[in-house]
Amino acid sequence: xxxxxxxxxxxxxxxxxxxxxxxxxxxxxxxxLAAAAVGYAMLGAGLLPHGQPLPPFWPWxxxxxxxxxxxxxxLIKAGALIAAExxxxxxxxLLRAR
Length: 98
Description:
Layout: H1 3-18, H2 22-25, H3 32-44, H4 71-97
Helix pairs in contact: 1-4, 3-4
């Protein structure tokens, strides 16, 4: 499987299991999804120490920071959050165009 497939699978899981749909994601319109993605990407890239309570720019309450067990899993989560942010921006543009 390729990276984009892992990311799509994780994004699908977020929607199906967590309910993080486009409607939900539209509530996060200040770059929050992208900021969260950066935190997981930095952790997955080894730029943040594992066990750090929160990245300094984390956009939400502490209990929302749920790092995965491996760098790969954190990078996949970061990719899915970026995909969610892109979808949110595109959907917002389409809604404004109406």
